[in-house]
Amino acid sequence: MTQNDYDTLGTKIKKLRIQKNLTQAEVAASLGVTPGYISNVENNRTAMSLRILVYYAKLMNISLDALIGRIDSEYQPTALDRDIMNELAEMDPDNKKKLLQTIRLWK
Questions:
Q1: Residues 6+ away with beta carbon under 8 Å from 42
Q2: Which of 33, 57, 71, 104 could disulfide-pair with 67, CB 3.0 to 4.6 Å?
């Protein structure tokens, strides 16, 4: 990871939280930290420990490697594959069939 990756981690963590419609207080309660800590992370004033990153990824319903892939540009292709698989796992069979037909048209 580059320094720039670390510098944007908080912003990406905030974006994920907002996508899940969670408040800083809700995330903090789930992770066993204070809302101030979450604010500091999101504003790049402090970095999450590995333990908290693992819990955060679980809370966001993504794998840790998907979370890191969103941060580390060199890891993004693998993380993209993981994100696609996670989305597929949540789809119903009819939508999976439609998606497969669409993919085959693109090829």
A1: 10, 11, 13, 14, 17, 24
A2: 57
For the stretch 38-84, pLDDT in tens is 999 999 899 888 899 999 999 998 888 777 765 555 555 666 677 77
Residue 107 binned pLDDT confidence (cut-offs 50, 70, 90): confident
The token pair that represents 41 in the structure block: 């992370």
Report residue 13 as tokens.
Answer: 């963590």
Are the C-beta atoms of residues 57 and 30 closer than 8 Å to each other?
Answer: no
Tell me the Cα Rg of the chain: 16
Least Cα distance to 7 among 47, 52, 64, 61 occurs for 47
The answer to whether 39 and 7 are in contact (CB under 8 A) is: no
Does the pTM surpass 0.85? The reply is no
